[in-house]
Amino acid sequence: MSSSKLIRGTFILTLGTIISKMLGLFYVIPFTRIVGLEGTRLYQYSYIPYTIFISIATAGIPLAVSKFIAKYNAMEEYSVGRKLFKSGLVVMMCSGIVAFLVLYFTAPLLSTGKDLPAEDITSVIRAVSFALIIVPFMSMIRGFFQGHQSMGPSAVSQVVEQVVRIVFVIAGAYIILKFLDGNTVDAVKAATFAAFVGAVGGLAVLVWYWVKRKPGLDELLEKDKGTVDISLKEMYKEILIYAAPFVLVGIANPLFQFIDQITFERAMVSIGISETAAGDAFSILNFQSHKLVIIPVSLATAFSLTLVPSITKAFVENDRKSLNRQLNQTFQVLLFLTLPAAAGLSLLAEPFYTVFYGHMDLGTEVLRMYAPVAIFFALYSVTAAILQGINEQKWTILSLLTGLLVKFALNMPLIKLFETDGAILATTLGYGAAIMINLIVIKIFSKYQFRLVVRRSFLIVIFGGLMLAAAAGVYKLLTGFLSPASEFQSLILILVSAIAGGIVYFYISFKTRLIYFLFGDKVDKLMGKLKLRA
């Protein structure tokens, strides 16, 4: 896969992921105002176990299939991938049904020990469990397209799935509370069932793409060498070897959140904080702030999905030069985009929180501390994807388990010392430990040298510092007559400060030509379209 094709595929999937994440972010503005803090807490209690179950239901197989198909396509053995795809659809349908049944009937066990009624949490978990029937099947099709280095179907289906889901969330919750005289629990049940409705929409898009592109995919079968005869048993053995690390990577963030779910409120109450205040703080951390922080991480998610087939291809072909070039480009672009986004979110935490949820001192403090952790989320996602691409996926199990152990061991002690900030610090240390292990393994097994990335990282940090200085100066000037406690004025603060910082950041990047080193001829094409070049 060429460097330009890597960037193109990454941009397509990045765009789709960012749009999906942005939609998933902005819906919380009306949703929070409709159901309140108690409603968002109830919603989060159901979504954390659902996310864990959906990752187990897919068993990492869609992304593993992407890697598998890329490997055999590189060998021009196209029929191997098609054979796996047909069988995999049946397997994923069955695993989805099993996962649905397990989550539905274990919901009461997952609902105990919370400050809200167990029967309310149970009903909400059961409402979201129906999505498990469709999502694994849908993810398998996405993996098939990604294995053919076609990112468009995944990107478009993600956006459609999110749009359908959000419309149902907002409309359902509003109608139930305003017109049907329902309560908060009923509204949240409708909001969680929206995951099933959205999945139906996403699946419809993928089916359309399959019908449209099947003739082209069939043409590849005509070019098949036919020298590899591999049984389904051997296929699934290889897939399962690939899949186990994908499962853990997919549920890494939900597992960290689940540790908070079972320890956070208990630790807060033990130091004299009321159950209600502890529950509100949990919702602010793991729902409201997390929704904002996860946006920069969407870049890493897109990279992860794109990296697996492209790095696998370079690794199978033993093209070390191409592999090192892709790794250099990936780390640098990731930091170039994620670092300023996370830093800017931290700087503008107060107006950001006000715009989305209303002004709150605790919310501002949590978001300001939590925002930089986005860089750790992104680095973990990408380094784990790289390990899978170079066939060292077994190390992702060690790195994640180490990170979870650090989080679990330190979470309650740090919460007792620093309250909500303690949970953030424990998450940072846990992810930091996992990332260090991943980087060490990458260096050893790919013989990759980090010298260029380290030098460019220092440059990106310096540019980010100049960006922050500019944004902070403008923000301080504006707060002389605008209040971050006002939603409309906060929006002006965000827009003007972010534009000022962005202009400085990208101006320096152009002048030093760093942006050309990272994005190549894509920059010239974009500038030409915008008519910004002389």
UniProtKB/TrEMBL annotation:
Subcellular location(s) per record: Cell membrane
Lyase found in the keyword field: no
Transmembrane portions of the chain: 12-35, 47-69, 89-111, 123-141, 162-180, 192-211, 239-259, 292-311, 331-349, 369-390, 397-418, 424-445, 457-478, 490-508
Pfam families listed in its UniProt record: Polysacc_synt
Membrane topology term: Multi-pass membrane protein
Keywords attached to this entry: Cell membrane, Membrane, Transmembrane, Transmembrane helix
Keyword Protein biosynthesis in annotation: no
GO cellular component, as recorded: plasma membrane
Protein name in the entry: Polysaccharide biosynthesis protein
Provenance organism: Neobacillus piezotolerans
